[in-house]
């Protein structure tokens, strides 16, 4: 299977992961008059399909008897690790559904930094506890910077009131819950990569996204019946939905899935805590999309823009500290 053999390649894969994770939600923002609960079915299929495709290509290179190849790795792995990864996928999926709901309510520039910033804190701490690789104090400093960035973004959102814009306290609550849950799937992955007969990065991606897809039968159906925003929807709306909505859902899943695989493959070189943390710089990418492409802060007071600027600064410092922790 393909794995990076230098820090440069691993860093490139982690940066690509951050760009993918910060950009996939643009596919939902580009959908018109199509509920996120319906969009999400195609997205969930997309993340599983691309993970399987990459596992059968990049993850299947080398000699046929190589134990690291995708199918060989699946055959030799402990069942407990497979189950652990799928449980992690189900937790991720609930967190991601809440994130998309928060994007629907508050926009990219708010939902991503708050939710994923909290996820970075929870994920790095829990992953490092399972696999203590890297410089602990520098990782801790990076986590503190991420927390400050989350606070700055929240204050930027609150400043919109001055401009006469409505803000939703519910959206912030949804972001916080999403962030805590988003950080909790990482330990399940770390366990499957470090305990007993382990799963490789490509196998992790496949079973993580399979767990996410299957859990849609619980989480997504629940939100279709009891939505956080708007009226309940049913599958009639999915089948009568626009082709562009289905295509964008699959594309969004493909983009996120590429980021997931690249992040996990890079983690085999750098360690889960560091790869996860750098991948979680995605909020900077998402916030830039929200501010520059979708004009979510158009007409906002200078104070809001100042807080956004501080958010970017603290995220950058946090990610630099996390990267340095690998030194």
Outline the structure in words.
- The protein has 327 residues and is an all-alpha fold.
- It has one domain.
- 76% of the residues lie in helices and 0% in strands.
- Helix 5 (79-106) runs antiparallel to helix 6 (108-130) and helix 9 (201-215) runs antiparallel to helix 12 (243-270).
- It is globular and about 65 Å long.
Largest sheet: none
Number of helices: 15
Radius of gyration: 19 Å
Strand content: under 5%
Order of helices and strands: HHHHHHHHHHHHHHH
Fold topology:
Layout: H1 7-23, H2 26-29, H3 36-57, H4 70-76, H5 79-106, H6 108-130, H7 136-158, H8 169-194, H9 201-215, H10 219-225, H11 235-239, H12 243-270, H13 272-279, H14 282-293, H15 302-324
Helix pairs in contact: 1-12, 1-13, 1-14, 3-9, 3-10, 3-12, 5-6, 5-8, 5-9, 6-7, 6-8, 6-13, 6-14, 7-15, 9-12, 12-13
Please supply descriptive tags for the structure shown above.
327 residues, mainly alpha, globular
Short structural description:
This protein has 327 residues and is an all-alpha fold. Helices cover 76% and strands 0% of the residues.
């Amino acid at each position: 299977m393909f794995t990076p053999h230098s820090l440069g390649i691993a860093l490139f894969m982690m940066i690509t992961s951050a760009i993918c994770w910060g950009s996939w939600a643009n596919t939902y923002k580009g959908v018109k008059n199509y509920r996120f609960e319906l969009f999400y079915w195609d997205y969930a299929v997309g993340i599983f399909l691309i993970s399987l495709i990459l596992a059968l290509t990049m993850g299947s290179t080398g000699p046929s008897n190589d134990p690291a190849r995708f199918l060989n790795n699946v055959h030799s792995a402990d069942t407990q690790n497979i189950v652990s990864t799928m449980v992690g996928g189900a937790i991720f999926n609930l967190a991601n559904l809440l994130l998309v709901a928060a994007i629907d309510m508050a926009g990219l520039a708010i939902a991503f930094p708050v939710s994923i910033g909290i996820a970075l804190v929870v994920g790095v701490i829990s992953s490092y506890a399972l696999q203590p690789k890297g410089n602990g104090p520098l990782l801790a400093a990076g986590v503190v910077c991420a927390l400050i960035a989350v606070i700055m973004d929240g204050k930027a959102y609150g400043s919109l009131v001055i401009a006469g814009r409505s803000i939703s306290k519910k959206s912030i609550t949804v972001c916080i819950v999403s962030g805590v849950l988003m950080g909790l799937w990482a330990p399940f992955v770390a366990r499957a990569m470090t305990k007993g007969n382990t799963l490789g990065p490509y196998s992790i991606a496949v079973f993580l996204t399979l767990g996410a897809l299957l859990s849609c039968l619980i989480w997504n159906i629940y939100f279709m019946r009891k939505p956080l925003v708007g009226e309940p929807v049913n599958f009639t709306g999915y089948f009568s939905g626009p082709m562009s909505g289905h295509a964008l859902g699959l594309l969004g899943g493909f983009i996120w899935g590429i980021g997931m695989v690249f992040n996990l493959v890079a983690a085999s070189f750098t360690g889960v805590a560091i790869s996860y943390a750098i991948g979680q710089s995605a909020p900077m990418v998402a916030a830039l999309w929200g501010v520059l492409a979708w004009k979510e802060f158009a007409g906002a007071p200078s104070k809001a823009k100042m807080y956004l600027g501080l958010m970017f600064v603290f995220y950058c410092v946090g990610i630099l500290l996390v990267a340095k922790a690998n030194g």
